[in-house]
Automatic annotation (TrEMBL):
Binds 2 Zn(2+) ions per subunit. The keyword Metal-binding applies. It comes from Luedemannella helvata. This is Dihydroorotase. It holds the Pfam family DHOase. Its EC number is 3.5.2.3. It catalyses: (S)-dihydroorotate + H2O = N-carbamoyl-L-aspartate + H(+). Residues 47-234 form the Dihydroorotase catalytic domain. Belongs to the metallo-dependent hydrolases superfamily. DHOase family. Class I DHOase subfamily. Zn(2+) 1 binds at H56, H58, D150, D303. Zn(2+) 2 binds at D150, H177, H230. Pathway: Pyrimidine metabolism; UMP biosynthesis via de novo pathway; (S)-dihydroorotate from bicarbonate: step 3/3. It is an enzyme of class 3 (hydrolase). NCBIfam families: PRK09357.1-1, pyrC_multi.
């Protein structure tokens, strides 16, 4: 196994450091290291960050390998600076048994580019009727701790209560896709001025907010951990702020696209901008940025949702919702949170690595880059700018909403347990 000596990188806090990586760990971290025999990486001008952790990735395997596989999604993740991703359960078959979550976990290990932590479904087949075998998934080789019916809301309050109670036993968490289905029937985009102008059926903010309000109260009632997926409205931020002040054990995520884009994008009828929850208004974007900066929203999660060409290049109403995001997440967060002065690099490290690793219970990730820590890290060029070309993405799907945009900051190296997964900006395999 090659020993790497990273020379002259800067940590998120600003200090310069050399890092010596051997046998999967950071064996030394100091201002000047002279490691003879090591392969030297000149990191002058680069930032060394703990590997990013994505709590919300759709890898599509098993079932839709034409859109993404565990391997292609892992490669996209590594290129985005990630060393761990949590794979959502809405595959085919659904990841609602120990067998399926172990299959995904093994595929991730075999690809070997990031740690793939499977998320288990809350209900059988995501149908919202019967609890899935949560205990068996928790005890499986995949050691599942996060359960989600993402794509669907666990709508029945009694079932939601039972699920919250169940996962308490192993400190698990229910990740809710907050969408009151009766309020979003036929919805195509955010309900507001733009949807009225375009004549499209709207997805009102209250459909999200009503479920978050209900579920924080349920989590408080049973004393369980709740996580809210892809928070998208100003009202949701307000409810979360209230719930956290009350001591309720709730965490929340926001996606890069909800930090940057608004419902005005629907005006061109390009389905690449169709997503659940939908792109909202400028006021929502401002509230989400503020909520992420002040910690009301704990983390950024990509909701990387690859879709095959035929599912996206069609009429808006028939297109599947979702956009890819692993390879652009860091850059979009830099553009929306750092370049606006709302957050610094330490804040980014917390929201994209430390906090998601803590929520997911991934002890080898989100660690300070100090001697003894696992060598899961990424080297970023903060001065670089790059143009997003859908054809150049490592993901098997092309549905990025940022085509043609020039974004700040680029991942140059990523290491998983001391082994490069990204080498001078290119995936190693
Ligand atoms: N975000 C989306 O619009 N789509 C996701 C499901 C989801 O995250 O709700 C998908 O699986 O494609
Ligand atoms: Zn969702
Ligand atoms: Zn999702």
């Amino acid at each position: 196994m090659t020993t790497y000596l990273i020379k002259g990188a800067r940590l998120a806090g600003g200090n310069r450091t050399d890092l010596l990586l051997r046998d999967g760990v950071i064996v030394e971290a100091a201002e000047k290291i002279s490691g003879s025999g090591a392969e030297v990486i000149d990191a002058d001008g680069l930032l060394a960050l703990p590997g990013l952790v994505d709590l919300h990735t759709h890898l599509r395997e098993p079932g839709r390998e034409d859109a993404e596989t565990v391997e292609t999604g892992s490669r996209a993740a590594a290129l985005g600076g990630y060393t761990a991703v949590c794979a959502m359960a809405n595959t085919s078959p659904v990841a609602d048994t120990a067998g399926v979550v172990e299959q995904v976990w093994r595929l991730g290990r075999d690809a070997g580019l990031v740690d793939v932590q499977p998320i288990g479904a809350v209900t059988v087949g995501l149908a919202g009727e019967h609890l899935a075998e949560l205990g068996a998934m928790a005890e499986s080789a995949a050691a599942v701790r996060i359960f989600s019916d993402d794509g669907h809301c666990v709508h029945d309050p009694r079932l939601m209560r039972r699920a919250l109670e169940y996962v308490r036993a192993f400190d698990g968490v229910i990740a809710q896709h907050a969408e009151e289905p009766r309020l979003t029937q036929g919805a195509q985009m955010h309900e507001g001025v733009e949807s009225a102008r375009l004549g499209m059926t709207g997805w009102p903010a209250v459909a999200e907010e009503a479920i978050i309000a209900r579920d924080v109260l349920l989590a408080e009632h049973v004393g369980a951990r709740l996580h809210i997926c892809h928070v998208s409205t100003a009202g949701s931020v307000e409810i979360l702020r209230w719930a956290k002040k009350r001591g309720i054990r709730v965490t929340a995520e926001v996606t890069p696209h909800h930090l940057l884009l608004t419902d005005e994008k629907a005006g061109g009828y390009d389905p690449v901008f169709k997503v659940n929850p939908p792109l909202r208004t400028n006021a929502d974007v401002a509230a989400l940025r503020q909520g992420l900066a002040d910690g009301t929203i704990d983390i950024v999660a990509t909701d990387h949702a690859p879709h095959a060409l035929q599912d996206k290049e069609c009429e808006w109403a028939y297109a599947r919702p979702g956009m890819v995001g692993l390879e652009t997440a860091l850059s979009v967060v830099v553009a929306t949170m750092l370049e606006t002065g709302l957050m610094d690099w330490s804040g980014l490290v917390d929201r994209m690595s430390v906090a998601p690793a803590r929520i997911a219970g991934l002890a080898e990730h989100g660690r300070d880059l100090v001697a003894g820590a696992p060598a899961n890290l990424t080297l970023v060029d903060p001065a670089a700018r790059w143009g997003v070309d859908p054809a150049a993405l490592a993901s098997r799907s092309r549905n990025t909403p940022y085509a043609g945009l020039t974004l700040p900051s680029r991942v140059v190296w990523t290491f998983l347990r001391g082994v490069p997964t990204v080498h001078e900006g290119k995936a190693v395999r």
